[in-house]
């Protein structure tokens, strides 16, 4: 025998051995089993010249251990071998994942050590926690070895470790597996940038640590009117993140705004700097074709009066060797214009340069004007 014991429902192999080689016509050995839970063929033939032949013994599932004797007879001589057919048992209880988010539906699988008998078997299921709900029974059909079942998890304020137990009443065999259920948690709220010029729109993103088992509504808030966010954003079932639109206003001074995302009692925050900057409504110079080697005074008009503290304006040109301007100029509080001088270099042919006006604090280009410098 290949084994002295076997689980009912499995096949075991036996070997019939002669003391001498089989005759020319072969040797027909009759076989018999002492129990109907071990099925053997009526006979096995050992080919001419051989001394051995293997034979498969099919066992049936049993609720308890059974000792079986197999008898082989040839030429009036009998020999016996005894083995034990063990009760049908559970091989394993496995889970699709050892951790789950409350509200998700993982699966479990119960497996038998051998195929179920005719009529199948019922496996009892139980959970140690109301946070993890399993069906009370699961049926494994005759001839089958496993069955998968759904697990319902319930959201909990703190992680819960539940033990799921499977019991096979047919034989009393049991298996257990552990499932940890955690609360869905926010991972981040982000914008992709740290600062934005006021008045521009941008997109934010809220993200969870794992995919949501169902639609998850995240509350949003901003601590300043400089940034407007929607009151909520919903991350759809099965997704990890969701984007939302943000609007900003250009209102001095520059502000650092805190945006908060909240879900299930937890809060995450991040900051966004909204850059306030002047808007140029108009720009004039005595000429856009100044003579080289001369100086002219240009005037910029603001869209609105400068705020308390005024504006610091940065000036530059595309080529300082052709046209130069002061590095900075101030627009005092309440002023709506500011002036600066442009000095041009002598030229022998027409040359070109661009005057640039920028917000000194952020470097944001507010306005540009091309000029042609003539001889």
Descriptive report:
With 375 residues, this protein is an all-beta fold. It folds into four domains: 5-86, Immunoglobulins (Immunoglobulin-like); 90-182, Immunoglobulin-like (Sandwich); 186-275, Immunoglobulins (Immunoglobulin-like, Sandwich); 280-373, Macroglobulin (MG2) domain (Immunoglobulin-like), CATH 2.60.40. 0% of the residues lie in helices and 57% in strands. The protein contains no helices and 35 strands. It has strands at residues 5-7, 11-17, 27-33, 38-39, 43-46, 52-59, 66-74, 77-86, 90-95, 99-101, 107-112, 121-127, 132-133, 137-140, 146-150, 152-153, 160-168, 173-182, 186-190, 195-197, 201-208, 216-222, 227-228, 232-235, 241-248, 255-263, 266-275, 280-284, 295-302, 311-317, 323-324, 328-331, 337-344, 351-359, 365-373. The strands form nine sheets. A five-stranded mixed β-sheet has the order 1-8-7-3-5, with no helix packed on it. It has a five-stranded mixed β-sheet with strand order 10-18-17-12-14, with no helix packed on it. A five-stranded mixed β-sheet has the order 20-27-26-22-24, with no helix packed on it. β26 and β27 form a beta hairpin. The protein starts with a strand and ends with a strand. The mean pLDDT is 92.
